[in-house]
Amino acid sequence: MELFIRQIINGLSTGSIYALIAVGYTMVYGIIKLINFAHGEVMMFGAYFAFLFAYSFNILELPFFVIILLSMSFAALMGIVIERLAYKKLRKAPRISALITAIGMSLFLQNLALLIWGSEKRKMEPLVSIEPVSIFGFEVSRLTLVTIGLSITFMIILRIFIHTTKPGKAMRAVSQDKEAALLMGINVNTIISLTFAIGSALGALGGIFYAMTYGQVYPTMGVMPGLKAFIAAVFGGIGNITGAMIGGYVIGIIENLTKAYTTGEWTDAIAFALLIIILLFKPTGLLGKNKKEKV
């Protein structure tokens, strides 16, 4: 029983990371119906930004929260630039064109990181204490608690932003009907850029926690967590933010339970098998809705 509860706690930590990344996937899809396969690389760059602020610029001795906010800001700017350069002119193009462009952008960012930092894996020490804290008799790392706590806090802030603020309501309007939103005076271009900025910032936060949890940063680190976050978004119903959050936690818990009760080699296979099962029996995901589209 102790092993089970411990894996649930680890699953919540891993799931928080997947949920943060999955939200970026689902927000972009909800607004422009694009699966942004470059999102995993934005997550990777977010981790590198934190690495640079923490170690390469260590003369600044920046506090943990400042490093996080700076890295998220740079990732947000990066998301806006990617959207403007790669996706903006393809909004009315066939979806396959945008999809191929997203894959191309993913490879471009990976190779850009290789060119800048090389293929060497760099060690990243946790930026917060890993000393354990006793909770109901269980020793839990402070890093795990910070990962879960900050991830949930940022996701709550996102929900409040979307449901109570004017830009948030505009994002919901654009996701429902871009043409009608435009007629109502909403600047669609600004809202799409804002969506990419928020999604990229949250992805960067996920990347920072991922790098601290596994203790390293490298150019291809965004591939696997990016794919699992995509599975999480599909599981929850891509386009639905709450669904993406739930999907992230489900994938995280399944992954850790699989590692604990099997040889560990089945972890990724089970995650991808889950995606196939979902697509076979409920293609719209847990909270997704059937929507007829004109061909």
Automatic annotation (TrEMBL):
GO cellular component, alphabetical, reads: plasma membrane
Q: Which UniProt keywords apply?
A: Amino-acid transport, Cell inner membrane, Cell membrane, Membrane, Transmembrane, Transmembrane helix, Transport
User: An example of a Gene Ontology BP annotation on this entry?
Assistant: L-alanine transport
Query: Which GO terms label this protein's molecular function in UniProt?
Result: L-isoleucine transmembrane transporter activity; L-leucine transmembrane transporter activity; L-phenylalanine transmembrane transporter activity; L-valine transmembrane transporter activity
Q: What Pfam families does the record tag this protein with?
A: BPD_transp_2
Please classify the protein's predominant subcellular localization into one broad category: membrane
Q: Where in the cell is it found?
A: Cell membrane
**How does it sit in the bilayer?**
Multi-pass membrane protein
**Where, by residue number, does the polypeptide cross the bilayer?**
16-35, 42-58, 64-86, 98-117, 143-162, 182-210, 230-254, 266-285
Top-rank taxon: Bacteria
Q: Which family does it belong to?
A: Belongs to the binding-protein-dependent transport system permease family. LivHM subfamily.
| Name of the protein in its database record | Branched-chain amino acid ABC transporter permease
Q: Which organism is it from?
A: Candidatus Xianfuyuplasma coldseepsis
Q: What is the lineage of its organism?
A: Bacteria, Bacillati, Mycoplasmatota, Mollicutes, Candidatus Izemoplasmatales
